[in-house]
Design a protein that fits this description.
The chain has 574 residues and is of the alpha/beta class. Helices cover 25% and strands 16% of the residues.
């Protein structure tokens, strides 16, 4: 990041409510903005731990970096110090030293020689680069890509002011969300220092190193996620309020946890590209149902997953299950359509599955006419989903994510007046959104809204706990051209149960897949004239089964996810 938060200038100043303004570093601030700056400056002395490299305290004055190594590795003899969770915290300047040392061959001291006037050679030795052994160096090279950066609060507050002004001046702002906005709800992300895909990559990496028995502890079993106990985070609720206020027009989400809709976001305002664990549809008539319970059948999913990877399974295959041609798993949930009696399928997009055309089309339409894209909690590594972020080349881009992305440089673009049209923040999404909301809502409304969170949580609890009694959609429906073969097997409703076999690499299934390859098949010639079809209802039975688009989805710049790895293909119920 630039040392100056004002590089390229700030957007137009907004002084809502007629409040007086003050100037800081040549930037005219409203009293609300000044208050945020004052609060942020008090965090400079906050202690975040001890640097694993230099041993000095890490304060809130400068950017810090966090990395994590597999907890199965014995790190007692490593150069850097790690806590019980395998996490190391460093000053950003120390991380640069560590990262540069990974490129050095052998163990060399960083020295330089200077000549004095008497032509006597004197050696000036700067701090020695870490002396990593081969194992630690290989591991650090593997975790470097998933390093998490945390901007100081002073920087976050400046960028929040910039973002709030950009939102206010935007005509059609859209938000692109990833797994990072749900980590505060209890669900893991994918490429963070301890993310799902990061852990998988590292565990495979450690296995390839053929570590000695004494270097590793006993394998730890992944316990999965109980989706029915997840509740919307501050960011989910903030986005819902901003939709209601008209500040943002649409949400494009890669998450399948259902938290956006639980917070109150309507179908007309969101495209869940990778499905929703609370929605299912009929494979015969296409009638769609929104449930208050988790819909995928993990028992059948575990069976097919085991068969793909191990050629055998200890799981008994349910009678209703049938193998999907595209992903190799199953989408049948064990329930039948109340309208025609056909089998119901979950909406989750697994590795190799088809994306729903209507959902993607709506996302493309909004991405094409946006003038500001806000990406929250995503590395934007999956194509073509990440192409939606830059669909309109002239749109400004705001990115809040703890890892670096390939789109970071776009956040520094300026308009014809030399004013920056975007922002880049390395921070937790909830932290940034709290700052932004304090600038977009007046003080009384903000206090009232934040104070009512407990009431909203009780409402969410009641929605998740009650039995699903939704009625099928009585509107139009279309036959599914979908992904399952017809079956003559009898319907058997069976609740998902965890597998008794210990398969740590395949048990970690999830719906928020940024790193999967997706094949999107179907006939794209049947699009509607306006390019989108939205449901007339946002309750149960919210439309019919959408058609498919034929496009290959892969993780950008990483061939490892093009078909080799099959883990994390399904959601797992905890």
């Amino acid at each position: 990041m630039s040392s100056s938060p004002f590089r390229g200038g700030m957007p137009k100043n907004y002084d809502s409510g007629g409040s007086s303004s003050e100037t800081e570093n040549g930037i005219c601030l409203t009293m609300t903005e000044k208050k945020l700056r004052s609060t942020a400056s008090k965090t400079k002395s906050k202690i975040f731990g001890t640097c694993s490299h230099c041993g000095q305290l890490i304060t809130g004055e400068k950017q810090r970096v966090e990395i994590a190594i597999p907890t199965t590795v014995n790190s007692s003899k490593f150069s850097l110090s790690y806590d019980s969770h395998g996490v190391a915290k460093l000053h950003n300047s120390c991380w640069k030293v560590v990262h540069s040392s990974l490129k050095q061959r052998g163990r060399r001291r960083n020295t330089r020689t200077s000549r004095t006037s008497s032509s006597t050679a004197s050696v000036i030795t700067t701090p020695e680069l870490p002396n990593f052994d081969r194992l630690e160096k290989d591991i650090l090279k593997a975790v470097a890509e998933s390093a998490e950066f945390h901007d100081p609060m002073v920087t976050v507050s400046w960028e929040a002011i910039r973002i709030a002004r950009l939102i206010k001046s935007s005509r059609h702002c859209i938000v692109f969300t990833g797994a990072g906005i749900s980590t505060a709800a209890g669900i893991g992300d994918y490429r963070g220092k301890s993310g799902k895909w990061t852990s998988l990559d590292l565990n495979d990496f450690i296995n390839d190193l053929s570590l000695k028995q004494e270097e590793c502890s006993e394998e730890v079993e992944d316990i999965g996620v109980d989706y029915e106990n997840l509740r919307p985070t501050y960011t989910h609720e903030a986005l819902k309020i901003l939709l209601d206020m008209g500040f943002i027009k649409y949400i494009i989400s890669q998450n399948g946890d259902g938290l956006h809709k639980l917070s109150g976001v309507k179908n007309a305002h969101i495209s869940e590209l990778h499905g929703n664990v609370y929605e299912e549809y009929c494979e015969e008539c296409g009638t769609r149902y929104t449930r208050d319970m988790y819909t995928p059948d993990d028992v059948a999913g575990q069976y097919y997953d085991d068969m793909q990877e191990f050629k055998k399974s200890t799981v008994k295959l349910p009678k209703h299950a049938i193998r999907c041609k595209t992903c190799g798993l199953t989408h049948r949930t064990g329930r039948k359509c109340e309208k025609c009696g056909g089998y119901l399928l979950d909406t989750i997009i697994n590795f190799g599955d088809d994306l729903e055309e209507d959902i993607l089309e709506r996302a493309e339409n909004h991405a094409a006419k946006t003038d500001l894209v806000i990406s929250l909690g995503s590395t934007m590594s999956v194509t073509p989903a990440n192409g939606l972020v830059t669909r309109n080349k002239s749109a400004g881009l705001v990115v809040c994510n703890r890892q670096k992305t390939d789109f970071d440089s776009l956040c520094d673009r300026t308009n014809s007046d030399g004013v920056r049209t975007g922002s880049r923040v390395f921070s937790d999404c909830d932290l940034l959104m709290k700052c932004v909301m304090s600038l977009l809502l007046n003080t009384n409304d903000l206090i009232r809204w934040e104070g009512e969170r407990d009431l909203r949580m009780r409402k969410y609890d009641s929605q998740r706990q009650k039995q699903s009694t939704t009625e099928p959609n009585t509107g139009s429906s279309e036959p599914n051209t979908g992904r399952s073969e017809p079956s003559t097997s009898q319907h058997t409703k069976q609740s998902p149960q965890p597998s008794s076999s210990k398969r740590s690499k395949t048990d970690n299934r999830s719906t928020q897949v940024e790193a999967r390859t997706r094949s999107v098949k179907g006939d794209k010639s049947k699009k509607s004239q306006d390019g989108s079809r939205t449901s007339s209802s946002d309750t149960a039975g919210t439309g019919t089964r959408d058609r498919k688009v034929k496009t290959k989805r892969t993780r950008s710049g990483d061939a490892r996810d093009s078909g080799k790895r099959r883990a994390s293909k399904r959601v797992k119920r905890g």
